[in-house]
Amino acid sequence: MRIVLVGPPGAGKGTQAAYLARNLEIPHISTGDLFRANISQGTPLGVEAKSYMDAGNLVPDSVTIRMAEDRMEQADAAGGFLLDGFPRNLGQAEALDTYLKGKGISLDAVLDLEVPEDEVVKRIAGRRICRKNSAHVFHAEYSKPKTEGVCDVCGGELYQRDDDHEDTVRKRLEVYHSETEPIIDYYKAQELVVTIPALGKVEEVTQRAMSALGRGE
Ligand code: ADP
């Protein structure tokens, strides 16, 4: 299966993507995670990406599209993938279509995670992420780890992303509305969009998504 996950920052894309990818046995490709890996390794790509990310802006398409395509070229993605955070604007969506067409393949679904905006802000402000595995996500109020600052799953250090501070979050939401939301109409025209209400327990949202993909229990 080839799936795209869209939704505002804080909709739970990363959390859902990790579960869905495991259930569907396809790799989870997150451009945000790829950028963060480059930042922590200090690569030139990471240095360039960081300035845009910390300001809440999108990293330029030229850099992002190449990075996403390189990742989709890897052997584990040959049978399918779950894209999380890519595409994020119309230029990227068109580039992805061209790439897939060139390979004679196509997307199966675009899952649109829907969450009210005030909820999004609350979720992000308290979000704490494990340094060792970004799928291990906690919240300072709603999903506290047993020991403050320590990941329950693997013992990694929990931290707040630089772009999760309030001003940056507002900017990211603005960018989401102006640049990312238009891709939902683009994919609606291709009849690929399934809207998933993303409030409620993580497992419930995953079940909704799996049913939408025809893989429900
Ligand atoms: P979230 O969905 O919570 O905003 P991500 O981890 O997906 O978090 O993305 C974090 C940041 O990485 C974005 O705000 C943006 O700066 C950059 N980024 C991620 N994916 C893309 C993309 N496809 N195009 C441009 N920038 C991106």
How would you summarize the topology of this molecule?
Blueprint: E1 2-6, H1 13-24, E2 28-30, H2 31-41, H3 44-54, H4 61-72, E3 81-84, H5 90-103, E4 109-114, H6 117-125, E5 127-130, E6 137-139, E7 158-159, H7 166-180, H8 182-188, E8 193-197, H9 202-212
Helix pairs in contact: 1-9, 2-3, 4-5
Bound molecules: adenosine-5'-diphosphate (ADP).
At the first level of CATH, the class is: Alpha Beta
- CATH topology term: Rossmann fold
Q: Which CATH architecture would you pick?
A: 3-Layer(aba) Sandwich
The CATH superfamily is: P-loop containing nucleotide triphosphate hydrolases
Number of domains: 1
First-last Cα distance: 18 Å
Walk me through what this model shows.
It catalyses: AMP + ATP = 2 ADP. Its EC number is 2.7.4.3. It is a single chain. The protein has helices at residues 13-24, 31-41, 44-54, 61-72, 90-103, 117-125, 166-180, 182-188, 202-212, and strands at residues 2-6, 28-30, 81-84, 109-114, 127-130, 137-139, 158-159, 193-197. The relative contact order is 0.19. The chain is 47% helix and 15% strand. A hairpin with a 6-residue loop joins strand 5 and strand 6 (137-139). The chain contains nine helices and eight strands. The protein has a single domain, classed as P-loop containing nucleotide triphosphate hydrolases (Rossmann fold). By secondary structure, it is an alpha/beta fold. Adenosine-5'-diphosphate is lined by residues 9-10, 13, 31-32, 35, 52-53, 57-59, 64, 85-86, 88, 92, 163, 172. Adenosine-5'-diphosphate (ADP) binds next to helix 2 and helix 3.
